[in-house]
Queue: 4 jobs
Job 1
Amino acid sequence: MTRLYILPTLLALATTFGAHAADPALDQTIADVGHRWATIYYQTPDKQKDAAYDELITQVQQLAHDHPKDAEPIVWQAIVLSSAAKIEGGLSALHKAKEARELLVSAEAIDPTVMNGSIYASLGSLYAKVPGWPLGFGDKKQAKVYFEKALAIDPHSIDTNYFYADYLADTGDYAKSVEYLQRALAAPPRPGREDADAGRRQEVQALLDTVKKKAAS
C-alpha cells in the first residue's frame, strides 16, 4: 500500500493557548487537544496511534461543530486529520488530507491569522507532501506561497520554520534549509506548549543533522 508522507501540521502551530479570553472553557478544551496531540504524536507507539487519532478526531469534530464561528477548533481538526493521514497511508490518507485542506480553507475565511499563521503553514505542508495530479493536489510552488504567508504572520514560529526547512530540503536547497532550521531552534518557548516544543525541537535537530550531511556530500 502506498504511504503518503504528510507532515502533521497539526500541532503546534499556536504560540500559546488562550486565544479565547471570552470563553475560558473553550481555551481549556483546545489546550487539552494540543496536549493529547503531542502525547500521541511524540510518545504513543505507532501501532497504537491509529486508534488514538480516531478518538481525538471524534473529539475535535464535535468541538468544531459546537463552535462553528471559531477558526481554531477547525484548524485543530485539520491538524489531527493530517497527523492521522501520515500514520495511515494509502488512499484513505489522501482522503483525510483533502478533508484537512477543505477545513483549513474554511478556517481561513473566518480568521486567516489564527494560531499565528498555522493555517498557511499547514496548507504549505499539505501541498508540499501530498502527491500531485492526478492522484492528489500536491504542488510545490503553491506550498512555497503558503509558507511565505505563514512566515509573514509569524517569522519566529518553530513549526513554520521547521516545515519550510523540510520543504527546502526536499527541493535540494540545503543551505537555506539549514538557515530555517536554525531559526526554528532559536524560536521562543510557547507557554503551555512545553510538550510540543520539546518534541518539535528533537525533530528540528534530527533534520538539521541530516541536511548538514547532505550538504557536505
Job 2
Amino acid sequence: MSEPLLETRDLLVDIGNTTVVSGLQLRVANGERLAILGRNGSGKSTLLATLAGLRRASGGTILLAGEDLARMPARRAALQRAWLGQSQNDPFASTVLETVLTGRHPHLRRWDWESRRDADLARSALRAVGLSSLEQRQIGTLSGGERQRLAIATVLTQAPALYLLDEPLSHLDLNHQMAVLELFAGATRERAAAVLMVLHDPALAHRFCDRALLLFGDGYSEIGPVDGVLTGAILSELYGHALRQIDDDGRRFFVPQ
C-alpha cells in the first residue's frame, strides 16, 4: 500500500473543555475526496485547522506526505497543502489579480517576483471561477460570493497536493456551488490531489466525496465510505433531527421529517 498523503495517529483535538476527536486514525490518499460533517459547534473547523498545522493538536501525530507536520517548516507545508478558511481577512487594498497571485508565494524564493507562468496560472484559476473580467477590481468592492470565489481561485493557483476547505460553498448560489465542487473533483482526477472539505449538505457530500468523517460533538467520530455512513439513520443521530433518505438513480437525498 502506498504512503498516504495525510495521516493521523491517535489524534486528540480539544477546544476549551470540549473534545472534538479522540484517537482519530485517518489515512487520506492522493485523489481522494473526504467530507467532514457535523452540527454547528461540533469542531469541524477546529479539526480542519489542526490538520492544516494552524493549531496544535492536544495529542497524537499528524503526518503530511510522511513527515511530522508539527516539525515541518511553514513553506514546505504550504507547498503540500492549501487551507481555505471560513472567512477572508483583507487588511490591505489589492486587486483581484494581485490577491490570487498570493497563491504562488510558497513557490517563490524570498526576493522573487511572480513569473509569466505564475500569472498564467492565476488567470486560469480566475477563469475557472468566473472572475476573469474582474482581475483589476479592488477586492473591497466584491460581493460575498465573488470574494469566496476569489479565495477558491487563490488555493487553486497554489496547486498543492492536498486541499483543506472549510465551508467552500458559503456565500455561493447553486450554480457556483456545483461549479466549485466540480473544480475540486477535477483536481482529484487530473492531478491526483486530495480534498478534505467541511460541508453542510449531506446529499452533496454523498455525490462528490468518496468518504465522510462525521463529528458528533462529544469526541466520538465515525468515518467510512459515503454509502455506509451517509444514511438517514446515522445522519438523524448526527444532526439530532429525523431525516428520511431518498435514493434515486445512484444519488442520495435527505429530507427532514
Job 3
Amino acid sequence: MSKKIKFGTDGWRAEIAADYTFDNVKRCSQGLASYFSQKGHQGQWIIVGYDRRFQSERFARAVAEVLTGNNFYVYLTNKATPTPVISFLVPLKKAIGAVNITASHNPPQDNGFKVRDQHGGAIAPDGLEQIEAMIPDDIHGVSSLPYQDGVDQGKIILVDPKKEYIQHLSSLVDIEGLKNSNLKVVYDPMWGNGAGWFSEILSSGTIEIHEIHSERNPIFPEMRRPEPIPPNIDVGLQQVVAQKGDVLIITDGDADRVGIGDENGIFINQLQVYALLAYYLLEIRKERGAIVKTLSTTSMLNKLGKIYDVPVYETAVGFKYVAPKMIETDAMIGGEESGGYAFRGNVPERDGILAGLFFLDFMVKTGKTPSQLLNLLFEKVGPHYYDRIDSRFTGDAEQKKQQILAVNPSSIGGLKVTSLDTTDGFKFNLEDGGWLLIRLSGTEPILRVYCETTRKDCVQAILTDGLKIAGIG
C-alpha cells in the first residue's frame, strides 16, 4: 500500500521524486475522476493545465491519461498557462472542472495538483475531502488510456486560450487606455507562467513593459521561491529604480497572485494592495457589492465597507472558502493575505494578471504614482502596518494548537487583547483595531505569525509576542 495522500487548501503539493511521483499524480487523478463520476459527469470535459516547474507538462499528460481512461474528455493547454486562464477556460468550454499541475509559490523542489470546480473556482472543503477519500491506495486502482490513443480518439484536445482570455480582459478593464498611457512598467513573472502576458496584452502603444525573470528556469534563481513578497522581489524592486519605472508588477509562479512595488522601489504589501483594489472599484469605478476577505487580511476593508455602505464578509483562510462566499453574495471583490484577489465579472478565482491591470488602470485614471495612491488610501482609512514571520513546523499540529490556546494572553505588544477568534488558527483582536494571527499553513509544514496594527511602533513587539505564544520565540 502506498502512502496516504492528504489534500490541503487547493489540492495536493509535495516534493518532486520523494512523494510527488507519476504514480501518485495518477492516483490523485483517479480520485478526481471517481469524484466526478459519482456526480454523474462521465463523458464530459475537464481542463488540464500546467506550470513551468520540472516535468510539469509530463505530469499533466499523466493526468489526461487517467481522466480519459475513466471516460472523460480533456482540453489540455498547449503550453504552460497561468492558473487564472485555466480557471477562465472552465466556463468558457462548459467543462465540469479543472486540474492544474502547479505548486504555485512553493519552493522549486515541489509540484502540485490543484483542482477547480465548474465555476473555475476552488472546490469547497467537503468536495476536497471526498476527492481525497476516493484516491486509491496504490497504482493498481488507476484506470488510464495512453496519451497518443487519447489524442487519436479525440478525447484529448490541445487548446490555446490566450486570444479568448485577452478579449475577456478587454471587457473588464480599459486596455486601450493602458496601452497609450506612457507608463513604464517593470514586470517580474518570477520565472513563471505570467511571462510574456503583460507585454502581449499591452503591446502596440506608448506603454513600456520591461520584463525580468521571464525565461523558464525551474530552480527560480535570485529568489527563495516564486512568491511575490520580500526577499523574493528584491531584484524587481532594484530594477524599478534602475529603469526609472513607474511601478513594479509581480506575479507568482502560476500568476494567480500579484505583488506591487512603487516608483521608489518600496514594496506595497498584500494587505495594502487589497485595500487599494477595493478602493479603486468603489471610488473610481463606482461599483457596489460585497467584499469577501479572509480573517488574515486587512481591517481597512471593514472601514471601506462602512464608508461606502457595502457588506464585508470574513472567511477562513483559502479560496476554497472565499470562492463559494463570492458566488453566494455576488461579491464585487474577494481576496486573501497571500496576494490573491478575485473580481466580479471574472471567474471566482485569484487572477494576478487582471489585478495587475486594475492597479495600472487606477494609476492612469487618477494620474497618481503608487506611493501617492497609498497615501490617498491612508487619508481615507488611516495608516495600517503589517508584517508576518514564517517558521518551519514539525510535530503534532493538534498539540501545538492546544499549547497556543493555553497561553491566553491579556495583552500583546503592549496592546490589550479584546477578543479571540478561532475560526482558522488563533486571531487575537487588539484594542487599536489591529490583530495578531497564528495559524498553521494548509499547504506547507509552516507556522505563520501575522499582524496588522495602526501603531507602527508596535509591529515588531506584536510579532515577538506572537512567536512566544506560538512557542517559537
Job 4
Amino acid sequence: MHKIPFFIGTFISYFVPGRERRRRVRGRINLFFFYIPIVLFIHRVYGERVKSIKFVRQISMKRMTCVVNGKYFVKVFRFVSVKRLNEYKLLLDFIRSHLPVKIPRVFVAKHIPMYVAEKLPGRVMTELNKKTVIKNGRKIKSQVSRIINALTSIPVSSIPDNKRFASRIQARKVENIICKSSVLAHCDLNPGNLLLDKNFKIVSIIDWDSMAIVPNPNKDKEDFARLWDIYTKAKK
C-alpha cells in the first residue's frame, strides 16, 4: 500500500509544466497521503503533537523528505525495505562514537519503509553564501578529510554480519565482497550533506542512507573532491 501514494503523486505531477513546480506538486500530493502515518509515528516515538509538517530538500519518486515541528526529519521510501532501514540504523548506532561530528539518531517504522531522525545542529552548506564557503574551502576540506579518516579507520571485521552492508554494486562485480582494503564509506559525501556552524566548522553530517562497506578505501575522498569541484564551478 505504501507504493500507491508515490504512484499517484508521480502520475498527477506529470501534467504539471516546469520541473521544479512538478517536483513540488509531486511532493505535496505524496505528503498528503503519508500525513497520517507520519503523525502517528512521530507521536508514538516522541510523544509530541504534530504542529507542522514542511516539505524539505529532496522530492523524488523514490523517496520523500519532510521536517516535523521544525525538529525531526522524516523520510519515506518507495524501493527500500523496512529491513534495510533497520540495518542502516544498526550501522549508524555502531559508528556514532567513532566520529568527531554528530550524526542522526534514527527510529524506523514497523511496517512502512519510513524513518524519523532528530534535526541536527548547523546549517546546510549549500544554504550559506557561496563565495564565503569557497573562501573557507581549505578549512572545510581539511575537516572532511579527518572525518573520512575516522570513518575508514573503523575495522569492518568488527561489524556484526558485515557482508550484509557490502555495497550492492560491488557485490555484483566482486566475488569476495569483503577484502583487506574494504572500508566503511558514506557513499554520498557531497557539500549539501555537510552542516556547518558560523565559524565554518563541520558539526554534523546527514544523509547516511547509502553508507556501505566498499573495497576502495578512497571512495569518499574521490567522491567529495569531484562533488566539491562541481559545487564551486556551478553558477548558483
